[in-house]
Amino acid sequence: MSAEQSVKYVLVTGASRGIGRACALRFAKEGWHVFLNCRSSLDELEEVRQEIQNEFPGHCTPVPGDVGNPEDVRKIFEKIYQVCPCLDVLVNNAGIAHIGLLTDMTDGEWSRLLDTNLSSVFYCCRSAVPPMVTRKAGRIINISSMWGTVGASCEAAYSAAKSGVHGLTRALAKELAPSNIQVNAIACGVIDTQMNSQLQPDERQALAEEIPAGRFASPEEVADLVWQTAHAPAYMTGQVIGIDGGYI
C-alpha cells in the first residue's frame, strides 16, 4: 500500500475551539489528515491549522462553512472529495447553546439552534455516507449532551435537538450496520469550554460540586473518547456513550 493510500481522513465540524479543536489535534497527532470546519471563527480555525502544520505529522485542510446549511455542506464535501475519495471518520461536533425560558425563544433562535445542532448532523451524514457504503467501512461520531438524555430546565430547545441526535444516531446505526459503518454518539456532561464561559466563578464552583467527579471535564478528555470510539470494535454501534463525571 502506498503512503497516499494509507492516509486516514477525518472531518471535524466546529473545529475552531473547544471539543472540536481538541478532536482535530488528537487525530492530527496520530498522523491523520484532518478537514477543519467552522462557520464564522475563521481566525481561530487558522490558528488550529497552523498548530497542526507546525507540531503534528498529520495534514489538514480548512473547509469553512455553515454545516446547518445544506448548500454549504454540499460545497464542503465537494472540496473534501477533491482531496480524498472517502472519509474514514466523520465527527459531527458543531453546536450552539441557548439558555432561557421556552416562551422567550424567538422563531429565529429556535430555527438556528435546530439547524446547527441537529440538521447539521443529517446534512453531513447524508454527504459522507455514500462513499462509506461503497467501501463498506467508516465511522460516524456525533457529539451530543447528557441533556439529550434527561433534559435541562431553561434549555428545552437544546435538549430537544440533542435528543434528536440520539435518535438519529441509533436509527442510522441500524441502517448502516449491514455496510459495516458504525454510528455512535458521545453525550457530554459539563465540559470546560467557551460554551460554559458565561458562568461566574461562584456558579462554576456550585456546578462542580453537583458533579460526583467534582470538576468539569477537559475538551481533551472528550477528544480521547472520540479517538477510542473511532477505533472501537466494529460490533459497537448505535450507542450513546456518556462522559459526565457521574452526573446522571
Characterization of this structure:
It is built from 9 helices and 7 strands. The protein is of the alpha/beta class and 248 residues long. It is globular, with a radius of gyration of 17 Å. Strands 3-2-1-4-5-6-7 form a 7-stranded parallel beta sheet, with helices on both faces. Strand 1 (9-12), helix 2 and strand 2 form a beta-alpha-beta unit.
Describe the SSE topology.
Elements: H1 3-6, E1 9-12, H2 18-29, E2 33-36, H3 42-55, E3 60-62, H4 70-83, E4 89-92, H5 107-135, E5 138-145, H6 147-150, H7 156-176, E6 181-188, H8 201-210, H9 219-230, E7 240-243
Parallel strand pairs: 1-2, 1-4, 2-3, 4-5, 5-6, 6-7
Helix pairs in contact: 2-3, 2-9, 4-5, 5-7
What is the percentage of strand-forming residues?
5-15%
Helix/strand class: alpha/beta
The radius of gyration computed from the alpha-carbon positions, rounded to a whole number of angstroms, is 17 Å
Task: Walk across the major sheet and give the strand order.
Answer: 3-2-1-4-5-6-7
**General shape:** globular
Number of helices: 9
Q: CA-to-CA gap between the ends?
A: 46 Å
The CATH architecture is 3-Layer(aba) Sandwich
**Average pLDDT over all residues:** 95
Number of domains: 1
Total E-strand runs: 7
Which blocks of ≥5 consecutive residues have pLDDT under 50?
Answer: none
Approximate helicity band: 40-55%
Helix and strand run: HEHEHEHEHEHHEHHE
CATH topology: Rossmann fold
Largest sheet: 7 strands, parallel
For the record, the CATH class is Alpha Beta
Organism: Mordavella massiliensis
GO molecular function: oxidoreductase activity
Pfam families: adh_short (PF00106)
Family: Belongs to the short-chain dehydrogenases/reductases (SDR) family.
